[in-house]
Amino acid sequence: MTLLPLLLYLVAGVVYTVFFVRRDSRAGRLATASLAAAALIHTFVIGMRTVEVGHLPLVGTASAISAFVWMLAVAYLYTEVTTDERALGVFIAPLLVALQTISTVSGTVSEPAAILDSPLLAAHVVSLLFAYAAFALACVVGITYVLLFRELKSKQLGFFAARLPSLHVIDVMNGRAVGIGWLFLTAGLAVGVAWALRLQPDTSDPRVLAMSFSDPKIFVVLLSWAIYSFELYARRAIGWSGRRAAWLSALGFSIVLVNLVPVGYFLTESHNF
User: Fold this and answer.
1) Phi, psi for 269 (deg, rounded to 5)
2) Which of 128, 175, 187, 268 has its CA 20 to 30 Å from the CA of residue 135?
3) Alpha-carbon distance 48 to 37, whole Å?
């Protein structure tokens, strides 16, 4: 059952590719339906795991990645429905497939440590994952901006110009996604600090005691916050929109991915529950 969401995300990716290349409306509707089916089955799997272990499956890197994939799929579907624009699906789907593959291959469901039984922790994790989903959308939108800009600059309109929204629309989408992501990232960090401060005086758990700026997981997420804060400041105060904002979005999400996968699996001492 856990393989089914991955297979459906893969099917959605193939159909989105067909739609992007051929611009066939039927393929577009099928792509949306495939992704919606994948998200629905993924919801069912997460629900089954919740019933199995008695809590939301957010503990452990594999579970967090799976939850992130689900949030990104739902966020993209919402964006697609509200904008009636399916072209970005061909860029979103490979990310969903890659991350869900990592989660499926390495995923295990286990009982959480007693110290993790806190609504503050749940709010911390959910806020960060929602922020990461928004940043993923911003990254994809930024990539499409660069691709379209280069085509327009070459004055050889064709493949991307016929398939993507205008540069202005893409830039606005990027700014909104980064703004929403930054709000949730800031809230998630604040809640995480509150949770850690409540725990540290009364626990001897080495993972909690390791929660400091020197831990790679915490350092990298703060670096991500700094980059996105600068992007928002630069957009409003310096006028860094368009390509510069697109590249900053790509840089920021690259750091998020590093934090989510290699750091989460191999380098952190405080977030390896």
Assistant:
1) -105, -15
2) 268
3) 17
